[in-house]
Amino acid sequence: QIDSAPAAEATENQPPAERPTDKSPLTKNLDPVLVLGEAIKPIDDYSSSQKSTSGHEVFCVRYSPDGQFVAAARGNGNIDVYSATKGTKVYEMPSTDVSGASPTCCIRFRPNTASSKTRNVLLAVDAGGSVKHWHMTSMKCLHTTSEDPNQIYALDYRPDGLKFATAGQDYQVRMYDEATKTLQSTLSGGLGYQRVGHSNRVFSLKFCTENEHMLLSAGWDNTVQVWDTRTDVPQRSIFGPHITGDSMDQWDNYVITGSWRPEKQLQLWDLRTCKLVKEYGWLDHAMPCMLYAAQFSRDPSASMVVAGGSGSNEARVYERESGEMRGVIKGMQQGVYSVDCHPTMSQVAVASGDGTVRLINYPKVGG
Questions:
Q1: Distance between CA atoms of 64 and 115, rounded to whole angstroms?
Q2: CA-wise closest residue to 269 among 299, 233, 294
Q3: What is the C-alpha to C-alpha distance for residues 165 and 205, in angstroms, rounded to an integer?
Q4: What does the pLDDT read at residue 6?
Q5: Which residues 6+ apart lie within 8 Å of 63 measured at CB?
Q6: What is d(CA 169, CA 24) in angstroms, rounded to the nearest whole number?
Q7: Could you report the per-residue pLDDT of 124-157, keeping only the tens digit for each?
Q8: How many whole angstroms from its chain centre is CA 232?
Q9: Residue 143 contacts residue 118 (beta carbons within 8 Å)
Q10: What does each C-alpha distance from 107 to 81, 82, 245 come to in angstroms?
């Protein structure tokens, strides 16, 4: 059971955060086993009139719960679904507003639980303020909700699939009931200086896996807010991470954050105390990497951390505990906008602004 006690009640005899290191003799370049999608052609290769047929950037990527499919949310509003073993595109969910399609910013598969009558449901949010439930295999839109004029950048399902949350341009976090698709509450805070909510755009949401009432949100205001969804105010806050993408994740009593900045990008935090535990070294004197994506691996011990971003246009794999860098993923022509770890395998999907998704097998701890 995750410790949801306020930070002031947690132990104060915590050791200082570990200093970053990039001395990782086991590091190697990791090549893709599959590349999904069509790469966007260099701008010199086509005129502006041909741009619509030359591919579209991928803003979010997600494996299906069984790991058999990979869904890619694109800048033209479409969601393409590929076979995770063959690499072929098997389903496509087009933007319903073709004339002025908004980028699909974030997607999540609905968890397969006992209460789920329909499988293969994919939830998507876009910059036009739409919240759409898709049935993947029939490629039909089951339901649409609008938050217009809000632009929605982030969403997450509660692990039991009964609730989901959205957030974006207007600083607020909205809680929905999955069965009725209705708005249940809005988390905005603001009741005093110590309990203030977000003061800028929100780009990442994460329901805690061990506490159904705990929700994390992060964005441009350099905070991670820790909410009890039964109240309207944050319970406590992590100060420091500058989040501009789906770059926050939670496991046990730890939170990983990937910040869009040239240093101190990848950090591990204690959820109980909101104190910094570790910084992962990302030293590259040639070109810094500013992070859009970060995630724990999905094995029970969350043994790895995967993150990626722009600048050097790369992703890296670290051992969570030791901090050793175990692999570098290069070759993207644009920044890494999203990563998602396979639910059962040591594999990660890396989505790029160059229009492709690379499936990468990464080493195990000690392997």
A1: 18
A2: 294
A3: 8
A4: 40
A5: 69, 70, 71, 84, 109, 340, 341, 342, 343, 349
A6: 39
A7: 999 999 999 999 999 999 999 999 999 999 999 9
A8: 24
A9: no
A10: 12, 15, 12
